[in-house]
Amino acid sequence: MSEQAGMTYKSAGVDNSVKERVSRLFYDASKKTWVNRKGRIGEIKSGVDSFSGYRSCDFSNLKDAEVGMGNDGIGTKQVIAQRLSTYTGDYSCHRGLPKDLLAMVVDDSGVRGAESILVTTTFNFNTLGENHVKLAEHLAQGMIEAANDARVAIFSGETADLGDVVGGYGNERYIADATALWVANTKRAITGKNLKPGIPLVAYMKAVLGQMD
User: Domains of the chain by range and CATH?
Assistant: First the structure.
């Protein structure tokens, strides 16, 4: 934003220093999830230790596989946590929301006989202030716990300050979405093409993926 135009990010209500702190929280949390794919399909390769730096993932041991993507969000469930934290000043109630967020994309992979391996997240806030940093601390910790449960790595993400575009309740509002990259064994993928009424279907991730893990 041009200084010559008489307006800066800060004068417009956007504090980039706070945004960088929130982005750093999510980036540091993401790094702690990369171990979930170490030695496995989708292992993270990072060249620069920066949330905006280069990183890639290793697919060299991928064979007889199909790759796909899916995305979802937590909908309006966060409004319950927003109401609670508004009344109590305690943001720890938001810690479980990332588990719901990741579950929404990971389970979509599972029903296809696939395994989610990498996830990207987007957290859009109404604004970014000191209380949002406290909120982000719990969201970031929840991301680590959720990714560990799902054995996925948080590959990258986005944090934005969108003002009144973000609805909800209270002063600390956000909406969250995630996209998952998944792999499935070509011979074991559940496409639905050959399914008919009356055919029993029992799925167990380890058995479905077999040699791919």
Answer: 16-212 (3.30.1330.10)
